[in-house]
Design goal:
The chain is an all-alpha fold. It is built from twelve helices and no strands.
Amino acid sequence: HRSLARTLTRRLQAGEHEGTRAAALEALYKHWLQAGQLQLAWQYGLEAAGEAARVLAFERAAQLYLDILGDRDKPGIAHLAPGARPASLTPAVLSRVWERLAEMLEFIGDYGGASWALAEALACLSKGDDAPPVTLPEPHEDEHAETIRRLTLRLADDLVKTGQLESGQLVFERLLAPLGLRLVRSKLEATGVLATLRLRLTAGDVLPERRHAITDADRYQLELFQRIFEAFCLVRPLYMTEALLRFQALARRVDDPAARAY
């Protein structure tokens, strides 16, 4: 085992050609996996997948990430009991690797697979069976809360792209919940909400002195409304219109020319 590992390592160090480096990394991953050295297998597996992504071999990168992580049919390192996993494989690290797999799947147009990977990434950050709660951005918040928002937003997008509109709606509603908003309404209620928003917009622009400096919470809302508009523009006109009007109403109240120009 050690002799083979030394040979592969020399190939890796000497190989200047991208194909040689990628092959050596993948061979080291498989070698250490078969040898039961999971920490080294995890390290070289991630490097091999990263190298494949670097040379734009996204499908191969996705295959490597999936092989490392595993699924129900073929469990991988991520499915080992916590005590049997490599010491560096914390829930936060594992979540980032699932997200990286989702990125590769998005690059090759597999949004169904990407949504599954994003759900796994979120599950790593959850303390129970339920999805981790989404919170509004706050000053000096930890990375955990921002990661949950980012993953949840990407999951909602990918679900809609695969045609899973109801599932996408539910995830978008998790993102809207901290704002006291929702998507699903009766047609009568939606008509009233849209009429109120239009009335506010026709009242004219907010005077410059009454605008407030844009905050991270404002940026989150603007991005969320924009993503809802883009996700549902061809399939849910009421959702699209409400998101657009809410974006415009908020953009008028903040001191940010880019937002008002959208």
